[in-house]
């Protein structure tokens, strides 16, 4: 199950420069989170909705909601209990808007271009000891891992439901954790076999 993969297109959103889109996502998310108000969340949601419509990708809006709803439900309940309904709406809305905005960036920028942009952004930090290429590799692994882990959670949930255990937290959590650890181990072994990630030795 793919949470984010490039969708080719010729819309204005697709053709906008990567730097402009990245700045809009980052600055918009920071402003919305700093405001911490339902009106700011609503404005962010409206702008994000318009951006998806402009890109012709409205059908992609519901996938993150379908994948994240158990976590969002728990967070909403906790925030409602701790701080009331408006805080719950604001927190959950902010999370969704940030995820959708970041996903739109992934959907409208080819992955090689996106990774090159991130590496270029980190390159000036070489003077501080940063390794841009390794950072880009870590980002690529993260973007590849998230859909796998979400798909794994969905498979476990379906399996538990088939056995009548969909309300058993252990039946849901333990297999997901085991799969995540196994996936991380396999990825680490594959990188080590190629000599990637090992510290440089003089």
Automatic annotation (TrEMBL):
Domain of life: Bacteria
Cellular localisation: Membrane
Main subcellular location: membrane
Keywords in alphabetical order: Membrane, Transmembrane, Transmembrane helix
Chain ranges passing through the membrane: 24-55, 61-81, 88-115
CDD domains xref list: EcfT
Bilayer topology annotation: Multi-pass membrane protein
InterPro entries in UniProt: ABC/ECF_trnsptr_transmembrane
UniProt xrefs under Pfam families: CbiQ
Protein name from the UniProt record: Energy-coupling factor transporter transmembrane protein EcfT
Organism listed in the record: Arthrobacter koreensis
